[in-house]
Amino acid sequence: MDRQEELRQWFALAEQDLNFAKNGAATMRPIPVERICNLCQQSVEKYFKGYLYLNQVEFPFTHDLSALLILCADIVPEFMKFEKQCRYLTKFSVMPRYPNELQLTEDDAKTAIRFAEEIKEFAVNIIHN
Questions:
Q1: Are the beta carbons of 45 and 65 closer than 8 angstroms?
Q2: Largest Cα–Cα distance of the chain, in whole Å?
Q3: How many DSSP H helices and E strands does the chain contain?
């Protein structure tokens, strides 16, 4: 499989995660805030890892979006404009999947979706330019 095809697969999975998050926010009551936040983090992680794979950059097994962001910014420095978004989303990588004391709100879900959409748009555009 060539790198472009692998990228398409990474991005398709990322898009699927983000679509599930948006659909859950729009149709489910009560809104599954924890799952939405986790899916947004997972989506961004896949966009970053797909981009790194395309550019033949080895990446660690991590859910830390800030660490992946730095690797992406080594290729395209403009990625660093998403530093705040990555810090916000990274906390949703594991905690929301298990019973815990993390208190999330619908505003957290809306913010997570917005941040994931911003990063998705940038990642997709950078590939096509």
A1: yes
A2: 43
A3: 5, 0
Residue located via tokens 């940038």:
122
- Alpha carbon separation from 57 to 36, 37, 48, 51 (Å, rounded): 29, 27, 11, 9
> Would you tell me the crossing angle of helices 83-90 and 33-54 to the nearest 10 degrees?
130
What are 65-99's pLDDT values in tens digits?
Answer: 999 999 999 999 999 999 999 999 999 988 656 66
- Residue 109's CATH number: 1.20.120.330
* CB-side neighbour CA atoms (13 Å) of 71: 22
Domain count, the chain: 1
Domain that residue 14 falls in:
3-128
Query: Residue 95: CA atoms inside 13 Å, Cβ hemisphere, count?
Result: 13
